[in-house]
Design a protein that fits this description.
Layout: H1 2-18, E1 27-32, E2 41-51, E3 54-66, E4 72-75, E5 87-88, E6 98-100, E7 105-107, E8 128-131, E9 134-137
Antiparallel strand pairs: 1-9, 2-3, 3-4, 5-6, 6-7, 8-9
The structure holds FE2/S2 (inorganic) cluster (FES).
The site of FE2/S2 (inorganic) cluster has 11 residues, from loops.
């Protein structure tokens, strides 16, 4: 009798941690796919994050644009050096690049790090999909894993 009661309770207790959330891992942003151009724009998006039983509201950001082939690119703004936020085209000495003001880190438009600056790897990339004409973003991953 004790095991009959404890197994369902154990499942209830463990389920939130073990749930697979493939579809829910994508957050639909307010950015229309049709409005994305070749110029990187900042897209902020918010979602509820669950960590075990703890829920919190998280706001995240992506730099989004279309590459020369028309493919959407969504880059994490988190500098791969020490985690500051990069900005697009804000350093007049290095136009058309992502710039990290913390230690003068630079990235090319495609997110690859510029040699000779502190970052040693490219910006992470968000996987994306289209949902009813809007951009939906997954969890940012190192380049090659996204
Ligand atoms: S944190 Fe970006 S260059 Fe150091």
């Amino acid at each position: 009798m004790a095991s009959a009661i404890s197994l369902p309770m154990l499942r209830f207790a463990v389920d939130p941690v073990l749930q697979t959330k493939e579809d829910s891992d994508y957050v639909v942003t307010d950015k229309k796919i049709a409005d994305i151009t070749n110029e990187p724009v900042r897209v902020d998006f918010a979602f509820e994050q669950k960590d075990g039983w703890y829920k919190s509201n998280v706001t995240n950001t992506a730099w989004v644009f279309k590459d020369e082939n028309g493919k959407i690119v969504a880059l994490s703004p988190v500098c791969t050096h020490l985690g500051c936020m990069v900005d697009w085209n804000t350093n007049k000495k290095h136009p058309e690049q992502f710039y990290c003001p913390c230690h003068d880190g630079l990235y090319k438009k495609d997110g690859t790090n510029v040699e000779g600056t502190p970052p040693t790897r490219p910006l992470d990339v968000y996987p994306y999909k289209e949902v009813d004409g809007y951009l939906a973003l997954g969890k940012a991953k190192p380049r090659g894993e996204a």
